[in-house]
Amino acid sequence: MKRLHARPAAAGGSDRGSGAIAVVIFALLFIALAAFVVDGGMTVAKRERAADLAEQAARAAAQDIDVDALRSAADLGATAPINYTDCDADIRTFLEAAGLDGDDVRASHCVAPTNADQVTVQVQLTYQPMLSGFFLSGDQHAKGVASAQSLTR
């Protein structure tokens, strides 16, 4: 005669495989968190770089002084007027020398207030998110704005 062994029934059903599901969920959450940390750091770095380039480009544009107006001024050089009409060309020359992409150079420009005493520059940097690109579509842009004045004192 054969003996039949009855298995005791679990109170809430089988827990088999629930650990694997928890591991998969936590792994996905960890990867998503890492993606946002890495891409967030990249965003901060690109914004700082755009601000630095804007400051340098504004200085480069402010150094383009109208020499004829400077020499003919009644105050004998106390003021140094900026060739603000050449501002866009000056910053594009600087940004190309700094190694920016052509699209970013074309998107960067002088903004108001721009006059003989002060130039204001906006620089754009384009970057592709590394890990959160699955959630964000297309390129991301970081912009920096800076001003420079012409002072002779």
Write a structural description.
It comes from Actinacidiphila bryophytorum. This is Putative Flp pilus-assembly TadG-like N-terminal domain-containing protein. Keywords: Membrane, Transmembrane, Transmembrane helix. It holds the Pfam family Tad. The protein has 153 residues and is α+β, with helices and mostly antiparallel strands. The protein has helices at 18-62, 67-72, 87-97, 102-107, and strands spanning 109-111, 118-127, 140-149. Helices cover 44% and strands 15% of the residues. The mean pLDDT is 84.
Features:
Tad_N; alpha+beta; 4 helices; single chain; 153 residues
How would you summarize what this structure contains?
The protein has helices at 18-62, 67-72, 87-97, 102-107; strands spanning 109-111, 118-127, 140-149.
Structure classification: alpha+beta
**Low-pLDDT stretches:** none
Sheet with the most strands: spatial strand order:
1-2-3
Strand content: 15-25%
Radius of gyration: 30 Å
- H/E series, N to C? HHHHEEE
Q: What is the arithmetic mean of pLDDT?
A: 84
The percent range for helix content is 40-55%
Shape: rod-shaped
Largest sheet geometry: 3 strands, antiparallel
Distance between the termini: 112 Å
Ordered list of secondary-structure elements with their pairings:
Layout: H1 18-62, H2 67-72, H3 87-97, H4 102-107, E1 109-111, E2 118-127, E3 140-149
Antiparallel strand pairs: 1-2, 2-3
